[in-house]
Amino acid sequence: MKPARDGFGAAERTGEAAGLAVHPLDAGRVPDFRTLHSRCGADGWYQCVAWWVPTWAGWGDRTAAENRELRDQLFARGEYDGYLLYEGRTPIGWMQVGPVGRLPKLWNSYRLDELSVTPSDLAISCATLLPEFRGRGYLHRFLDLVLATVETNARTRRIDRPLRVLAFPKVGEDLAADDVWTGTEQAFSARGFRCLREDPAHPVLSWTPDEDPIEVREGQLRAEHDGPRRHSVVVFDLGGVLVDNAGIEQFLAWTPRLSKEELWARWLSSPSVRAFECGNTSAPEFARALRAEFELEPTPREIEREIESWICGFYSGAEELLTALRPQVRLACLSNTNQLHWDRMLREIDLYALLDHRYLSFRSGLLKPDDDIFTHLTEQLSPWTEGASERILFLDDHPRNVDAARSHGIDARCTAGIDAVRAELANAGFQVAPPPRES
């Protein structure tokens, strides 16, 4: 039996779910690898060899037989580049993992030379499950087991370089299973991957072990969930809850016939606003449409600059509050927002580090208070709520959003401002950070 060339296949891992286990691919498991890919669809097309083919030119014309031949060549030279997930004795998933430097095509496609990436960093370059296991939380647990395995291997072998794992999910609306063969952004974000490069379709994510390893933190959260506390996930709206968006006052001055409540009502139902916050229009297009819809006097460029400035910053104490909560419960945001405002928020606080999940309208194409967004939210969080939507605590400052969430069984509370948020969390049984002292 030839050893795996990258040397990261020494350990295996068993999951808590009945019969789930991860094993490194080796010569003895090649038949299982073939069986899995023959059942994954596309007639065993072996999509993961894409990164071993030198260029994308002619990729669409390749045949399954050509890909199988290339995979056999890789096996012949000892390239066993990943892990198999088993339920009992049945292989149900595959994750391609190995040093990113051995895949020049991947390196060049994502311009990794522009980032603080080294060839020895590990890359998750393919992740797939049998169709019947998709959408049921298996990918999350698979990722847990693989990360725990590579971390254990690095620690056991005393590798003298910092361990870092990269991921390359494709994001967008209505993605087919074939589109997410590199893994889903939701699964990676849920496991603490942070963004190295923002991109609307092809972001680059990164994970490193921290002082609170995945297994320890997940164990703590499970212990909390199994105790008297009823909530397993806390979901925050951003504007008006964690973020001060008082900049709307200028927009009110432009629409003197509308009260603040009337403006918000029109804003939430505005076709141009919905198109922008669903990611369907650019900022200049949005400014022109908004000017016409609300009959505004300022120029489109003035409107665009004003809207960008609406985000005044995070409330004092918001970052400390999230930091205090993170060891106790999974954290998420659910926000009707746009790329302008999201980029502005990220410049102030690293929400990729503080939140386990980020549900953003301009990425998902879904808006509050529509039913679809809350259906999506409960489905995405089901691995941690066990399908019980009442285990989600949702804090939002708009009554319409709160009512819509409640209609889906979510424990939703109308809350505005950081002090009210802190009080609601304390009432729910969480230890919250004290308000910051006035200087």
TrEMBL record:
This is HAD hydrolase-like protein. GO terms for molecular function: hydrolase activity. PANTHER family: ALPHA-D-GLUCOSE 1-PHOSPHATE PHOSPHATASE, FLAVIN MONONUCLEOTIDE HYDROLASE 1, CHLOROPLATIC. Keywords: Hydrolase. InterPro entries: Acyl_CoA_acyltransferase, HAD-like_sf, HAD_sf, PGP-like_dom2. The lineage of its organism: Bacteria, Candidatus Eiseniibacteriota. Signal peptide: none annotated. Gene3D superfamilies: HAD superfamily/HAD-like, Putative phosphatase, domain 2. SUPFAM superfamilies: Acyl-CoA N-acyltransferases (Nat), HAD-like.
